[in-house]
Design brief:
6-stranded parallel sheet, about 40% helix, about 300 residues, homohexamer
Amino acid sequence: MSRPLTTAAQGTEAPLAPAPLAPLPRVMIEPVVAAALREDLGRGGDVTTNATVPASAQATARLVAREAGVIAGLDLAALAFSLVDDRVRFEADLTDGQPAAAGQQVAAVTGPARALLTAERVALNFVSHLSGIATATAEIAAAIADTGTRVCCTRKTTPGLRALEKHAVRAGGGLNHRMGLDDAVLIKDNHVALAGGVAAAVRSARQAVGHMMPIEVEVDTLDQLRELLEDPVDAVLLDNMTPAELAEAVALVDGRIVTEASGRITAQSAPALAASGVDLISTGWITHSAPILDIGLDIAR
Amino acid sequence: MSRPLTTAAQGTEAPLAPAPLAPLPRVMIEPVVAAALREDLGRGGDVTTNATVPASAQATARLVAREAGVIAGLDLAALAFSLVDDRVRFEADLTDGQPAAAGQQVAAVTGPARALLTAERVALNFVSHLSGIATATAEIAAAIADTGTRVCCTRKTTPGLRALEKHAVRAGGGLNHRMGLDDAVLIKDNHVALAGGVAAAVRSARQAVGHMMPIEVEVDTLDQLRELLEDPVDAVLLDNMTPAELAEAVALVDGRIVTEASGRITAQSAPALAASGVDLISTGWITHSAPILDIGLDIAR
Amino acid sequence: MSRPLTTAAQGTEAPLAPAPLAPLPRVMIEPVVAAALREDLGRGGDVTTNATVPASAQATARLVAREAGVIAGLDLAALAFSLVDDRVRFEADLTDGQPAAAGQQVAAVTGPARALLTAERVALNFVSHLSGIATATAEIAAAIADTGTRVCCTRKTTPGLRALEKHAVRAGGGLNHRMGLDDAVLIKDNHVALAGGVAAAVRSARQAVGHMMPIEVEVDTLDQLRELLEDPVDAVLLDNMTPAELAEAVALVDGRIVTEASGRITAQSAPALAASGVDLISTGWITHSAPILDIGLDIAR
Amino acid sequence: MSRPLTTAAQGTEAPLAPAPLAPLPRVMIEPVVAAALREDLGRGGDVTTNATVPASAQATARLVAREAGVIAGLDLAALAFSLVDDRVRFEADLTDGQPAAAGQQVAAVTGPARALLTAERVALNFVSHLSGIATATAEIAAAIADTGTRVCCTRKTTPGLRALEKHAVRAGGGLNHRMGLDDAVLIKDNHVALAGGVAAAVRSARQAVGHMMPIEVEVDTLDQLRELLEDPVDAVLLDNMTPAELAEAVALVDGRIVTEASGRITAQSAPALAASGVDLISTGWITHSAPILDIGLDIAR
Amino acid sequence: MSRPLTTAAQGTEAPLAPAPLAPLPRVMIEPVVAAALREDLGRGGDVTTNATVPASAQATARLVAREAGVIAGLDLAALAFSLVDDRVRFEADLTDGQPAAAGQQVAAVTGPARALLTAERVALNFVSHLSGIATATAEIAAAIADTGTRVCCTRKTTPGLRALEKHAVRAGGGLNHRMGLDDAVLIKDNHVALAGGVAAAVRSARQAVGHMMPIEVEVDTLDQLRELLEDPVDAVLLDNMTPAELAEAVALVDGRIVTEASGRITAQSAPALAASGVDLISTGWITHSAPILDIGLDIAR
Amino acid sequence: MSRPLTTAAQGTEAPLAPAPLAPLPRVMIEPVVAAALREDLGRGGDVTTNATVPASAQATARLVAREAGVIAGLDLAALAFSLVDDRVRFEADLTDGQPAAAGQQVAAVTGPARALLTAERVALNFVSHLSGIATATAEIAAAIADTGTRVCCTRKTTPGLRALEKHAVRAGGGLNHRMGLDDAVLIKDNHVALAGGVAAAVRSARQAVGHMMPIEVEVDTLDQLRELLEDPVDAVLLDNMTPAELAEAVALVDGRIVTEASGRITAQSAPALAASGVDLISTGWITHSAPILDIGLDIAR
């Protein structure tokens, strides 16, 4: 295998504490938060709050997890409040990637009451969506925690939110697959068919790309895998295989390249797949279909 | 009730065939589709396809529903392909709002093979996400189809996609609630508390807004409802009430204002709530937690 | 009338002091102010000031109303200065919606002299344009202040400035009509003709929209009004009627729906129209043709 | 005078037919038209039209001048329709800069009825605003047509619309002054005071700028003018002078530099000022306070 | 070496004809071309052309290479013309990546003369800048064409133009290194120092990133290289080494990982470095300091 | 000459110390710096730094000129760091336009180590590119410092960076020519041919533009110059003339208009051209082909 994954058995290495998740720089998140606020404020602002809440009213609010899960997106929530009124103070009790119990306070927000109410929905939309992804990821990660297999995501993300959703996957303990079409080669069945075979596709790809761009090939059968291994690339995507097929595939690969299983994987099905010894299982479900984590805002006056 | 909903009993009116869903103008959707493509293309474009697929290869692909559901977002899928290469021809078999059976072809796409593969993921991300919302909406709508109650959405939408998700709700047969903070007044508990009571909040709102902005008030108890009805507004949001409480609320209102029930409503719980006779049930679940409708692209060469 | 306007006689209610006008959040106004500055700075910045004024020079300037009027847009002026140099201090003597006498100081600005001169024109362009709208609105409002009628605006606004101009109308004591095409239904003659009559148009609209979207219908004659009242909507736009016709229309409506008069209304013609008892008179003139309020910047060195 | 204006007496030159006004390239106008449409369409599109007008309905509409004036902005109107639906055909009867009589058809628009109604307001907002500016400009130009003086505009334009409004001034037969802060030097009283006198300001400016950037100086008195003429620049702005003072100023200048009069100039006051022989009179009124030219859309079905 | 570069000796593989360079999709290049046009058109458009060239004049122009070089950026030039006027026809004689001789026609452009003149400078600015990069790249590539070494670029690109400049490097026969900070790990001296050594840095990186993100480490000495090879990553950057040191490094690596040499490399110094057998030499010079390729526009009337 | 350049002999005027270069306002530079950061951060941020550098690590870094040159772009570098993390402190030792010796510290940057490493490349890309332009300009300026001739730039700038590159030219002691197509008239051979001669082109231009827009005409021969001088404009561009021809041209002009020489001018060829007495020599080389000034970041821990 070209570059051993840490979670794969690394005999001589002591286990590492996972590094704390790095926040996304403000320059990356400000446009999406500002756009979300403008989408909600429309052409008239928060008419309800402006009509009913005195401008001078101050308030404190608590972001509370209504159910247990892993938190992600706190920086976006904080930014939503401060972009509405920079006098709002946001104090987080947790950081992205940490678990919250049901009923636990996640953050406290203090400032003009109008700003708290105006930014509330946008802040919650971000943090509940991203925490939903982190939680779904963490559930799968937990289900396979006693194996050497790790969970990773796909390009099946919500349009416009890829950087945020990839971050949420990391918050949930998952790894990121490609960030887009341009940062790695993933040769799928259609490419193979149009290129005239796996070998031709691989040769063309090697010719085209530099050394900082890995090459992975999708195979559906063990025969295709055997063909690929005659001239191995960096990784193989084993699509829609049974646990038994995966185990045989892992044996065939024998550590030479990274093995990745995919195909409608859930927390339920993951352990059986991981038992095969694959390095990774990838799933679009955690980004495209995870329900939100219910997080609410309680105003304490 | 100030403006009778058509689905509420309208004695003398013949039932209307629902109007076909109007598409969103291209000027509204092009920025979000272009942004999604740029997000995926990154700084290098589709390296895999460019390396493996001949520029001259032509192909035809079929968008196929892998499971049954209601389709939404076909215009966005079509636009994704044409923004990558304007020679691609997209022929839709259905229009937004129509149901697809499992395995049914939704659209056919013909053109340069590279363009089909490059735009595939973005096109599918849009159509599967929006069809998921339409399908979830339609499920609740179907569950209460034999009542006078209709389902509507909330502002709990994915940041940046509100116009699209509101459209998907309409595709699923639901109604839209507020589009944002600026197009209607919705007085919630926090507003009431900060304004000094329901009556004060309502008076302030009436003073502030014009005749094209409806006023709705959220109440948690029947006592609050009774207080509200002394000086009724356009609608009341009955939050987290049991079916029995809702029925009593509907009786109290007696058709004077629109009644809306909310609180963690699903297709399972909806019929019992609708049996109370409320005009509307609103739910954030259909926009923030609906899983995608699985739609794939099969390339026929 | 579905939702009684506060200014219409409300017997039992004590008169309310109008709520102070809420400012637009910075996240709404910063893009338009920044764009205006970039439009003026072009590709080279303020060559005159940079060539003639020492970088170290400090100055204080006074925004002065050269004529009497109602002020609007102070936040935009303040932002223009601070976006050029965040060391500028802007101290407003008034807030949006307050009247200024001829010669009265509206605000004082202190900071680097270069920044004051560079931002001057953009700041004044905003505040004089928006104060012109507020002043024109206030003139009509004053002319009908002893009636129950209120003035409101239209969608005839300057492209790109709708949110600001709607705010300026509120500053002048007017109400806002629709903010755009998407937040209320306004059925005009062309819609009626293409829908096959008023009744068909109204039925279609009711079918399509949710409870948070009011429906108004434009009528040109009393006969059309009578037809409309057989199945009343939320409001009626009485277009180009004489005061006598309006009075008859108001009598026909008899408080069941909101009545709005339109058609080339000015401060001169407004009182006669208001005498009819209509709830609202709407006019595009206040946004599309109001002259600026002359506001200048006097530098005190 | 450094560069003789053509309209000033040019003895030996035959009079030129004015060149037809060049349209602004689409790449310059598309962003502002698209933004205006998005501002109006909001998050839901044209709900009224979509609910009441059949998708298949075709229509023809006429843009008609309700009053006489000079037309400007037709390209923006055309673009508004085509950005909503590219099947709309827009046929202009006039081009920017041509006069329309009251009641005259300006353009015909044919296509899907929905698109005509959806784009109508944005199209009219552009063309009526810009035609208002062109008409106001043309009125002043006509008032001084028998003199050698020409009218020009200022930087007192509507934020975000400078390029369009400068174009409208040209359509009305006016000349453009500076386009922004960066394309010419205009030394005003505040610059003079902070630079330590006219001579110092002029010397600094000459040092700083290249040969493609003209220098103009504002003076309030004839004494200041005399001082300026000791070391003349390209043009002098004679601010708030009486016709008699202007005549004396023109005599002092004696053709050596361009003379420009400013200060609350209207079509009424312009002829007396022009009689002084100044080369130009400049006015902000034509851009910041001109009422719209009333242009309507008549749908012929 | 984890993934053998095709240009490195691949014994059993037949040599491949390089794949033709794929164009960047229009959705990627349109924003940058439109922005460049707007930057040049400013607030008034092309006043010279509009004043002097009749609107009806048609013309044909030839893009001609004034000196020999490799062409890149033709799509951007074509788009510049068509965004000014979509009636312009652009016929390319070459495609990106092909060489042009001095005096050779690169493309012919036909259409309204005004459009040709208005778009000329922007079109040439793109194609001459990008062809300059392609030519500089090709010069180094040619200098080492008889070795197994290939040239690649860095992140030292012109702000805002990275995707275009990376494309130009490919056009010149070079490979791309990282596209940005997010698509590969490159551990430099500062990272090592702050992480507490090479081994710690590598372990942390492996823990953090997925299998589609390669890891490269920069070393300055052979001792550092030896340390790295105890736990090898995907690639090593050998910074500022002499040809002799490089040769020793290559021998130490012995094909286990990719070797890359960097440090002020030019076409003159490249052959000596390549003789060491390194897989790649990388240089910022080709993107940040390459002079333009002189390409002009000759109008044939 | 219509407006004498200060550097041309001005007998009676004392020499002026050049005014310090004015910085570009933040509102002009923030979009381009933010875009450059987003381009580099991509969809995942700085994975290397986040994986290897502790979040708590503080560091100080020095921007050091690796070679002698004139500095430009420091504000952009400072902004790059602060947009990544607003806790970074940037202390400049020099200001734009000042020379740096090889090895000299240009600025010191202190703050979170991660932010320093993440912003490093973007900051250096700006400052090294712009300093390269300033240095190239200064070299030509120095070569002709003992003449009355000054160097100026052209519109041959990098797309998207014109305002910055024009600023860098000023930093190097050069003057700016036109900022774009809209701020001055420059009649070239193609315009002349399509207009039907120099005289016709000049007449048309005078008719079209106002007094704040200079007119320059390009001539290739002395005969063309003589024709132009019969009706002189503001400036003449003498293209590709020999020093002897230029001297004759300057004699013909005899101070009546500004003279500008152009045509592949370098620091080597400039003195001979300047000896002719032309007012200006203009060159695209300084913006489109100047190599960067090598500036590095040394982290001191």
